[in-house]
Amino acid sequence: MSTAPILRHVDELNAFQLRDGATNKMIALLLPGQDGSKASINMEIFEVGGSQNPNSHCDSAEVFYFLRGTGIAHCDEHTVEVRAGDFLILPAGSVHSIVNTGDEKMYALATLLADDGSHDGSTRPALALDAEDVRVISGTAVERAL
């Protein structure tokens, strides 16, 4: 018998802060172990001025796709500006963090290709998503060029 696909709607998702003191929140879309996967996929939401705590993943690159907003990514001694539409790969073992430098929330999909459990927020308190979060995540806030 095959394994059923995993399907979730935005109404079923909860956010969490991964670490104490973090000013971004995450939504787990895929956790290691679901359907045999070693990867994790999260939506990260950065409030204006919000950031991740500096962090590192010894055995996995972390990949970001920015959906909305602008910011700065720090990776070891390197700093790059990021914005909606950018794809960022942070090498395994790098110490990195991302800061929202824009005047609106910043949204990004974040993937660890071999998550060691560092993105597991299952024991963290659930945080509510606001109306803007739901619009962006569900795709109803997609901006169209005229």
Secondary-structure blueprint:
Layout: E1 15-16, E2 24-30, E3 40-46, E4 62-68, E5 70-75, E6 78-83, E7 87-90, E8 96-100, E9 106-112, H1 131-138
Antiparallel strand pairs: 1-2, 2-3, 3-9, 4-7, 4-9, 5-6, 5-8
Beta content comes to: 25-35%
- Percent helix among the residues? under 10%
CATH top level assignment: Mainly Beta
What's the helix count?
1
Average pLDDT metric: 84
Distance between the termini: 49 Å
> For the report, how would you describe the main beta sheet?
6 strands, antiparallel
Over all CA atoms, what is the radius of gyration? 15 Å
- Major sheet: order of its strands? 1-2-3-9-4-7
Shape summary = globular
CATH architecture: Sandwich
Task: Give the class from helix and strand content and strand pairing.
Answer: mainly beta
Could you explain how this protein is built, in words?
This protein is mainly β. It has one domain (12-138): Jelly Rolls (Sandwich). It is 5% helix and 35% strand. It is built from one helix and nine strands. The protein has one helix at residues 131-138; strands at residues 15-16, 24-30, 40-46, 62-68, 70-75, 78-83, 87-90, 96-100, 106-112. The chain has a six-stranded antiparallel sheet, covered by helices on one side. The chain has a three-stranded antiparallel sheet with strand order 6-5-8, with no helix packed on it. Strand 1 (15-16) and strand 2 form a beta hairpin. The longest helix has 8 residues, at 131-138. The model has no long low-confidence stretch (mean pLDDT 84).
Compact description:
The chain is mostly beta strands and 146 residues long.
